[in-house]
Amino acid sequence: MGLIYMFVYLIQGLILGVTAGISPGPMLGLVITQTLRRGWRAGSLVACAPLFSDLPIIFLLVVVLRNLPSLALQILAFVGGLFVIYLGIETIRSASKTVSIEANLKNASTSVQDNTYRILFSAVLTNFLNPHPYLFWATIGSTLLLQSYALGGLWSSGSFLVGFYLCLVGAKLALVLLVSRSRTWLQGQAYKWTLQASGLLLLGLGYVLIWESFQKLHCSRNKARLVLREEKSQRNILS
Q: Torsion angle, CA of 149/153/154/157, rounded to 10 degrees?
């Protein structure tokens, strides 16, 4: 049973990770900028920034959420499912827009020198100031992490994290390679089709998460009713 949970949460992490990795946003813009201006090594450093910036965000939110009652976590799971559907819709909508390479180069800071630590620091700072990691880990990310740990232990939660960051960083590294070889790839049909497919995967995952949250809420209500009936019957017996 533990292997099944590991596989389920690994797949969920892979879907969420690859979509987060290729979706337009501040981090993708910085990846493109550094790759075009300084080459694939600088772009690769930026792609790895979430490995450094997300850890304190995850730790803080998991510590807060683990102390909440189960009902609150189930409500958060429902909200997280809605957030995933929103991300899916936004991902599909973004496929119709063209990524402007000239705009990324124009908005790039010319004061940042070709220094490894400065490039990495600017990327980590950008991700800290990006609201998406906080929204993701405050809703669906932490909820799935806690659920995977409760159902399958450390291995299941670890498989979710490995799947998520493997695809999050891996997708950005793949974009670095493609952009460094062809500047027009982000403006082609292949990237748009990839975004559309990822958006559809997110929509499907969001509906699954909402359905699971409804199922758990229904089970919790049934358990609460059974407890109330047992207490009422015990009172009748004692009286």
A: -40
State both tokens at 224: 């609460």
For residues 213 and 81, the answer to whether their CB atoms sit within 8 Å is: yes
Tokens representing residue 148 in the block: 């995977």
pTM (predicted TM-score): 0.71
CB proximity list for 62: less than 8 A, separation 6 or greater = 142, 145, 146
Using CA of residue 137, residue 138, residue 140, residue 143, what is the dihedral sign? positive
Query: In the 8-state DSSP scheme, what is residue 141?
Result: I
Q: What is the CA radius of gyration of the chain?
A: 21
For residue 56, CA distances in Å to 19, 133, 188, 196 come to 22, 11, 37, 31
Q: Give per-residue pLDDT as tens, 88-142.
A: 888 788 767 655 555 554 554 444 445 777 888 888 888 887 778 888 888 888 8
pLDDT tens-digit readout, 148-189: 988 888 999 999 999 999 999 999 999 888 888 776 666 667
